[in-house]
Amino acid sequence: MTEHLSTAEENYIKSIYHLQQSESVVSTNEVAARLNTKAASVTDMLKRLNSKQVIHYEKYKGVSLSIEGEKIAIDIIRKHRLWEYFLVEKLQFKWDEVHEIAEELEHISSKQLVERLDNYLGYPKFDPHGDPIPDSKGHIQFQEQISLTDLTIEKPATVSAVVGSQSSELLELLTHKNIGIGTRIVIKRKFSYDNSMEIETNDNCTFTISKELAMALFVR
Amino acid sequence: MTEHLSTAEENYIKSIYHLQQSESVVSTNEVAARLNTKAASVTDMLKRLNSKQVIHYEKYKGVSLSIEGEKIAIDIIRKHRLWEYFLVEKLQFKWDEVHEIAEELEHISSKQLVERLDNYLGYPKFDPHGDPIPDSKGHIQFQEQISLTDLTIEKPATVSAVVGSQSSELLELLTHKNIGIGTRIVIKRKFSYDNSMEIETNDNCTFTISKELAMALFVR
DNA sequence: TAAATAATTTAGATTCGCCTAAATTTTTAT
DNA sequence: ATAAAAATTTAGGCGAATCTAAATTATTTA
Ligand SMILES: [Mn+2]
Ligand SMILES: [Mn+2]
Ligand SMILES: [Mn+2]
Ligand SMILES: [Mn+2]
Fold first, then answer.
1. pLDDT, tens digit (0-9, with 9 covering 90-100), for B79-110
2. Domain that holds residue B36
3. Chain A residue nearest residue B110, CA to CA
4. What is the number of structural domains in chain A?
């Protein structure tokens, strides 16, 4: 299939993939912003990736992944999330500490390593942040999840993901409130004054959380 | 201490370290041979590493690691061997399959990751090839080992290392004869005609091994 | 010790990945 | 519909890491 891709190329492909989740065609500036680089550098790379057939690109028209490119992206994301799972489950890292390390580990090339790691971990379906881990065929079990903000009162739900998962402040707060992936939540009241809400969790605790925290939590 | 080192720089430092085990000053050509590159490229890199103070280098005079460079080398080797141990013990790789993968994993930078991995693995002292794993302070428990070729008749010894550990032919042979790191061996007879020898192992098996195999085995 | 040979370095290119500044194209606002 | 603003690309350059070919230095051999 595709020859060897550099770490930089892989990071671009992954970024384009993620940006495509919201809008199917991605702009040069968006890629630049996500990768903390300059638009001119992005244009450079897009030309290269285009000639390698992993993206569709025409100047001034934005970029999207080719079928091949999407496969590559999913493979990198699979590795990223499996390693994050490993770091948390086996090496006892906290979930706010693993992203940077996985950012490096995701580029280790051995196919066999990924498969064996997956098997060793027991084929986990979600990473420590609640994001789905693609299987070895590249299939992703998308979960329809909604922001806790949009959950109906009195309707029980389970925390499925946390956004802003690199923030240790967020982790501190969630640890204090004893909330994590898998926690059952019911909204008891919503206060329109500050958009805070009173919730009840698993362990029969009832307390109030802020609008900010509610927006960081996704449930299903 | 030292800023960030690239993968290429780390590989050069590690190679110089290994070459220094036999002779304290290493030549440009030796480095080139070990890294499968050209002498001109090595000269280039030596200038860079010299300016970063990790080696001592004067033109036409060969190269050696600085104190700082040696610490870096040992740290990379520690990571390499810990990952090899992980791959064999946890992911069930055979010991002839792990070197290439560890060659990539050894460049993952997180200090915390190494320490936690070491702890997770139970602070192993030797890698799957019998080579010592440096501890977190960089201390290496050297073992005086000798080639099986040089072992005295009737003197029991334990296989401590296998050289040529990337060869699957060697692994095949050792698996067949049921020899591995830790196997107890006694030499019963040496045949000077072809330098083969009759040995007895753990499991009370007695059989003959070739000169070639004896040279690949180290014991203590 | 002088010539031949081997080892090493220098010179000059190339590719990748990035940058700044300038030019061009597209989009938005008047 | 123009002009202003924003987005994007091009031009030109730089450092890292590699290469080949040529020049230089060191070592060996006659
Ligand atoms: Mn990455
Ligand atoms: Mn994640
Ligand atoms: Mn390496
Ligand atoms: Mn090893």
1. 999 999 999 999 999 988 999 999 999 999 99
2. 7-65
3. A101
4. 2
